[in-house]
Amino acid sequence: MTKNLPGAAGDLAKAHPAVWDAYAQLGEATAQAGALTDRERRLVKLALAIGAASEGAVHSHSRRGLTEGINAADLHQVALLAIGPLGLPRAVAAGTWISDVTDK
Q: Is 0.85 topped by the overall pTM?
């Protein structure tokens, strides 16, 4: 799994595989801690990435969402939903980050 990770995450995984494995196990444990579906979890993670203003994480969760069958319009709706709680500038930025992935 670690050999296919892009960018800095892949670099960290290769340099510190035990740390990456522990991180992956934590992610799996949190995913299984409730009743959300895979789709719901991906959209929540995208929303959290938008809230944290993490362009890389928005790219990652958008890319993974597309791979998992979530359509581009649904990913963009998450950015629109950010307008109220986070403000128009953050939502617009998130929309452009999502477009970086969906418009390829």
A: yes
How far apart, in Å, are the Cα atoms of 45 and each of 9, 16, 17, 29? 17, 24, 23, 15
Maximum alpha-carbon separation in the chain: 40
Instruction: Tell me the H-state helices in the chain.
Output: 7-15, 17-31, 38-51, 55-67, 72-81, 83-86, 88-102
Residue 71 Ramachandran class (φ > 0 left, ψ -120 to 50 alpha, else beta): beta
Closest CA to 58 of 12, 92, 103, 94: 94
Question: How do residues 5-59 score in pLDDT, each as one tens digit?
Answer: 778 888 999 999 999 999 999 999 999 999 999 999 999 999 999 999 999 999 9
Compute the distance between CA of residue 5 and CA of residue 15 in angstroms, rounded to an integer. 12
